[in-house]
Amino acid sequence: MLTTTTQSIRRVFVESDMDRVDVIDVVHGHVAVFCRRCPGKIEPNDDSAAMIQTSSGGIVMVVADGVGGCPLGYKASAIAVESIMEGVQQAAPFADLRPAILDGIERANHEILDLGIGAATTLAVVEIQDRMARAYQVGDSMTLMIGQRGSLKWKSTPHSPVGYAIESGMLDEQAAMHHDERHLVSNLVGSRSMHIEIGPAILLSARDSVVVGSDGLFDNLHLGEVVELAKSGKPEKRMAALTDLATRRMNEQKDGQPGKPDDLAILIFSP
Fold first, then answer.
1. What CA–CA distance (Å, rounded) separates 82 from 77?
2. Of residues 8, 46, 37, the one with CA closest to residue 24
3. Which helix (H) or strand (E) holds 10?
4. What is the pTM of this model?
5. Cβ neighbours of residue 238 under 8 Å, at least 6 residues apart?
6. Euclidean distance between the first and final Cα of the chain, in Å?
7. CA distance 185 to 140
8. Apex CA 260: angle with CA 223 and CA 219, to 5°?
9. Which residues form the PPM-type phosphatase domain (predicted)?
10. CA Rg, the chain, in Å?
11. Which fold has domain 9-270?
12. What average pLDDT does this structure show over 25-37?
């Protein structure tokens, strides 16, 4: 069997407060990254992000949102992304990345618990190999897989009472945006009851995109808005459109519109 190697790339974004989009060239496309503190916030950004391209051309993207109100949320999210990056980087070339990702999540859970201070984080991970994409999730950070024409090919379900209510049809998205319990999360890295949800393998067409983001994105934009802004265009423009609208919503908080000041972390894979 003929195998080829490609350039390995590893980028980690911890306690970042970016003022411009970072675009990383990868196999078959680009990964755009943006991480920023909540407007007016003095404490470090609790959101962390990372991406790695392996020597076999596999791509892994990670977003972790340290739980606000818990001690050292930014430390918990940093541990999560670093654990996954280390596991994937140590995996043998051309190996299945699933065991490395799962082991990284489990290792992060143990390490955060060992801190003994109640720290915790959400986690959303996507691996892309040979145009097959699969998501892994703990908490309410989310992954969307978007077709070129704006079809939503797949989305993760937030691990929260409100997220499950939307998925079951008991609550619509508009009502969920303003629900009193929208900030509650029922599954976290840093919990003895943590569980990992593994999504199905989704075949990406040549112009499909993948968005991974913290709730700083999804609490401020409706799913349809994220899909419309992220489906096409240059990577920088897609990301700028998402972050500009999220920032306006955070600052304006108009009646009838979502609006929640928060840290923000977004990765977009696009052709």
1. 9
2. 8
3. strand 9-13
4. 0.92
5. 32, 209, 229, 230, 231, 232, 268, 270
6. 27
7. 7
8. 20
9. 30-271
10. 17
11. Phosphatase 2c; domain 1 (3.60.40)
12. 96
